[in-house]
């Protein structure tokens, strides 16, 4: 839309077309325009001296106003078109070549295992920045069979990769419901209420202990935080690739969490030290000495082991519950 | 010589970002020099020197730090030139949020951190709004959702900027910044250039709205740094 037709609109008309513009003027320290007034009138009424006081100017405000509207209109372009991602090997810590070309498709899950310090996080970093032979490992990441465009690779607006790690915390001073609404708004979804309710319900199913909509996000337990982050990433994050770094101790239903992400057609890469979690992926990549060493397919025998592991884990969970309730621990 | 002004609130990660940027520059044959502007004290000179980067510090003391910055930026340029540097990086803290050291024609970087809270982008004025490049730090310790909300809110107050995430601990993201800096124009000096935005009022010609850089334009209570 051009500036002339925009300026001929009233503020109410603008909000109808671009609901996200509701907070625009207030983020520049300006009062909300009158809904019935044409935008041209609003801009003309602004006093340059006052604008200087709040750190802006008429020309800056006009330019940002137009550019931000353009940005809102472009928001959904180039998204959700990731059908595949390929990891092309580089070199390990000793400079040996990695003979790897690994393709992942939407809905695939890959577990990444290896000793501490072997280079698992380095691989996640390479994927996160969609490396093109320009990181220390010289690996390359292709999207849909090609090198990703620069704005996809470097900008924060079109991130293809979302992350979930044990180091992440909520820091914002909001309750669960307000926080989810805030996120939904910044993602420009049409019915924020429906999606936030779905995230809330899902997170509560994932978490061992229940929480309410009015719980401050900073007061959530480790498990509850992780559950909310997983549900939020699955339902609301636009990024088609999800990197998960060691969430085993989080106290969430891990198989359900992975199921949720796969249902959303995400490509999931999972660094883990937990055998059950590693087996949930049909393929697992072994990292040693900074290099991708082996790609293992989950065998029939491992599927049997996985069932046994599930029983063991359930037994362990039961013990944990009994211990918490002060019962005597008997095996 | 190329030049970059890096600004951001205290403790947002400016020095870490610049250190990683400087390593990228050095690794590709550039010679960066850093002028660190601070208020009361700064220990960062040693940090830069440890990794072999030419550095000098200016302390504003009782003066407004950004006014102090602009009163010394032409001399900083000459100092950097004398050290044989091919890129000058200035680091200054935006303390009152209404100030900005950014100059027209010189690449302007604003560093802002995820931990500062989702309302911070709207609280920071011209330093963020007029930057060419915005670097968002400390994304590794907040949730993915908060990263997304924060980036969106930065975008809202600066729809033109190139926005990158950078991890000050690992340096992840510094390469993207390096690529932008590499493309910065070569400039002949800062004399006569114009600040992107006026500084808030109080004590020297810049308080009265002066925007031209250079000794001739400095009237009133200014203080000059000693580069020796």
Explained architecture:
The complex is a heterodimer of chains A (about 325) and B (about 230). With about 325 residues, chain A is of the alpha/beta class. Chain A folds into three domains: about 5-75, no CATH class; about 85-300, P-loop containing nucleotide triphosphate hydrolases (Rossmann fold), CATH 3.40.50; about 300-330. Chain A is built from 13 helices and nine strands. In chain A, a hairpin with a 2-residue loop joins strand 8 and strand 9. In chain A, helix 8 packs across helix 9 (about 190-205) and helix 9 packs across helix 10. Helices cover about 30% and strands about 20% of the residues of chain B. In chain B, helix 1 packs across helix 7. Chain B is globular. Classes of the chains: A alpha/beta (about 325), B alpha/beta (about 230). Chains A and B meet through helix 5, strand 5, helix 8 and helix 10 of A and helix 6, strand 7 and helix 7 of B.
User: In oligomeric terms, what are we looking at?
Assistant: heterodimer
Largest interface: A-B, 52 and 45 residues
DSSP summary, beta strand count of chain B: 7
What percentage of residues of chain A falls in helices of 4 or more residues? 40-55%
Helix content of chain B: 25-40%
**What proportion of the residues of chain B form beta strands (DSSP E)?**
15-25%
Q: Any idea of the CATH class of the largest domain in chain A?
A: Alpha Beta
Q: Could you state the CATH homologous superfamily of the largest domain in chain A?
A: P-loop containing nucleotide triphosphate hydrolases
Strand content of chain A: 5-15%
Low-confidence stretches of chain A: none
Mean pLDDT of chain A comes to: 89
Shape of chain A: globular
Structural class of chain B: alpha/beta
């Amino acid at each position: 839309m051009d500036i002339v037709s925009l300026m001929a609109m009233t503020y109410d008309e603008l909000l109808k077309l671009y609901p996200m513009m509701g907070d625009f003027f207030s983020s520049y320290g300006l009062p909300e325009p009158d809904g019935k007034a044409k935008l041209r009138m609003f801009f003309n009424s602004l006093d340059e001296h006052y604008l200087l006081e709040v750190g802006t100017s008429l020309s800056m405000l006009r330019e940002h106003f137009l550019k931000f509207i353009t940005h809102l209109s472009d928001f959904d372009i180039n998204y959700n078109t990731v059908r595949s991602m390929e990891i092309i090997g580089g070199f390990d810590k000793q400079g040996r070549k990695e003979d790897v070309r690994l393709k992942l498709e939407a809905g695939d899950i890959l577990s990444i295992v290896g000793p501490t310090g072997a280079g698992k996080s380095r691989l996640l970093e390479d994927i996160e920045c969609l490396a093109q032979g320009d990181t220390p490992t010289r690996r390359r990441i292709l999207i849909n069979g090609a090198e990703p465009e620069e704005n996809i690779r470097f900008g924060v607006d079109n991130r293809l990769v979302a992350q979930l790690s044990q180091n992440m915390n909520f820091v914002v001073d909001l309750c669960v419901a307000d926080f989810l609404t805030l996120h939904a708004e910044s993602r420009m979804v049409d019915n924020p209420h429906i999606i936030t309710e779905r995230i809330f319900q899902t997170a509560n199913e994932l978490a061992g202990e229940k929480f309410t909509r009015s719980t401050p996000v900073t007061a959530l337990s480790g498990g509850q935080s992780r559950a909310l982050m997983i549900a939020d990433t699955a339902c609301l994050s636009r990024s088609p690739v999800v990197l998960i770094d060691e969430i085993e101790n989080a106290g969430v239903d891990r198989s359900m969490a992975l199921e949720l992400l796969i249902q959303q057609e995400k490509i999931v890469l999972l660094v883990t030290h937990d055998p059950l979690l590693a087996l949930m992926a049909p393929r697992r990549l072994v990292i040693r000495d900074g290099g991708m060493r082996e790609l293992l397919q989950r065998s029939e025998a491992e599927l049997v082991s996985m069932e046994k592991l599930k029983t063991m884990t359930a037994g362990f969970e039961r013990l944990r519950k009994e211990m918490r309730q002060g019962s005597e621990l008997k095996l | 010589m190329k030049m970059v002004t890096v600004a951001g609130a205290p403790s947002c990660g400016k020095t870490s970002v610049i250190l990683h940027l400087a390593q990228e520059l050095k690794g590709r044959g550039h010679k960066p020099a850093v002028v660190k502007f601070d208020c009361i004290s700064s220990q960062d000179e040693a940090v830069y020197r440890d990794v072999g980067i030419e550095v000098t510090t200016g302390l504003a003391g009782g003066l407004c730090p950004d006014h102090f910055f602009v009163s010394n930026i032409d001399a900083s340029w000459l100092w950097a030139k004398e050290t044989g540097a091919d890129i000058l990086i200035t680091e200054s803290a935006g303390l009152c949020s209404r100030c900005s050291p950014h100059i027209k024609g010189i690449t302007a970087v604003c560093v802002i951190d995820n931990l500062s809270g989702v309302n911070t982008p709207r609280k920071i004025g011209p330093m963020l709004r007029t930057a060419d490049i915005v670097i968002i730090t400390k994304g590794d310790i907040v949730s993915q959702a908060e990263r997304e909300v924060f980036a969106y809110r930065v975008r809202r107050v600066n729809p033109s900027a190139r926005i990158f995430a950078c991890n000050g601990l690992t340096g992840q993201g510094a390469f993207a910044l390096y690529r932008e800096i590499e493309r910065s124009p070569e400039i002949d000096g800062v004399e006569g250039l114009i600040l992107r935005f006026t500084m808030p009022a109080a004590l020297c010609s810049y308080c009265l709205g002066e925007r031209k850089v250079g000794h001739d334009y400095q009237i009133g209570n200014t203080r000059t740094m000693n580069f020796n």
